[in-house]
Design a protein that fits this description.
The complex is a heterodimer of chains A (189) and B (175).
Chain A lengths: L2 H6 L4 H19 L7 H10 L15 H21 L9 H8 L23 H21 L3 H10 L3 H27 L1
Chain B lengths: L1 H15 L5 H7 L14 H16 L5 H8 L5 H22 L20 H16 L3 H10 L4 H18 L6
Classes of the chains: A mainly alpha (189), B mainly alpha (175).
Amino acid sequence: MSFIEWIRQPWPWYVAGPLIGLMVPVLLIMGNRTLGISSSLRHACAACVPFDIHFFKYDWKKEAWNLLFVAGIIVGGFITAMFLANPDPILVNPKLAEEMSGYGITNYTGIIPSEVFNWPALLTARGLIMIVFGGFLVGFGTRYAGGCTSGHAIMGLSNLQWPSLVATCCFMAGGFIMANLILPFILKL
Amino acid sequence: MDNIKDIQKPVAIIDTNTDFEVRSLDAMCVNAATVAEPKWHIIKYFIMGIMFGIILIKAEVISWFRIQEMFRLQSFHMFGVIGSAVVVGMISVFLIKKLNIKTIYGEKIVLEDKKFNKGQIYGGLIFGLGWALTGACPGPLFAQIGYGSTIVIVTLFSAIAGTWVYGRFREKLPH
């Protein structure tokens, strides 16, 4: 197996997880920055649509590193798609595949199910809820909670912050409720 | 003298901004490097972002399907990724504190404590709902767009709108 074939495979959790964890000390040592992604959404508001809202009136340019970081994530995604993409469909638990086929989701070649997430779907109730309303909840909830998976679950827990543990448990609880109790009805729409 | 000015300013901001959300205010002000670094050095964060994006995709944590598996307890993968990331992060932070490791500019590394407020519960639950719907937290949103899922641009703008609405009605929300 050549190197490029090897690196194109999905990376196991025990490789990817520690690499993600290393972002914490690298950013700290590089310049005293704490890992956090959802703040970039706030900076975007502060830069573009602050109006007269106190929460968005600060010098976002001081946080430009965060915006560059997320811009880098976009480029990283692009580079992966170009050179490092896994050519095979994602392998999921057969139980999930069985459930999803009941909702007409059978395409596992993408990172998101193309049957649900596509441009024409914006005109359907299902697509509108999952794409637009889902995104709204992500942006509203992360800021309300003061962080997302990176800021609370990874950075906060790394620093032994118990409020981050509370937040992480609530992320999980919300996810369990949605995936198991609500999403089945939405997917049937 | 410049340093003193930089340190005093954030305190003033915290005073006037009724502070429910300590983390990002601190990250923004106190945590901003006070030691002058050449402007172009900011490129390093761009490069780290690229690496972070590649890792997120290769780990498949940006996959809607992996998120569904996680919330149905059908796979260990996501728990393994987040768990091992936290363990590595914890050891790193412990070592930084223990050995008093400085930044590459010789500055002391500052980690602010997070203060508890009820937003972490309400907001956390709301974000969890959105996470399972979109299959993405904020980082993966950016990675998915770069990977070529253009529709996620809509999700990202909705997320920015959600953040804005939170900021707009923040004082009226229970914290």
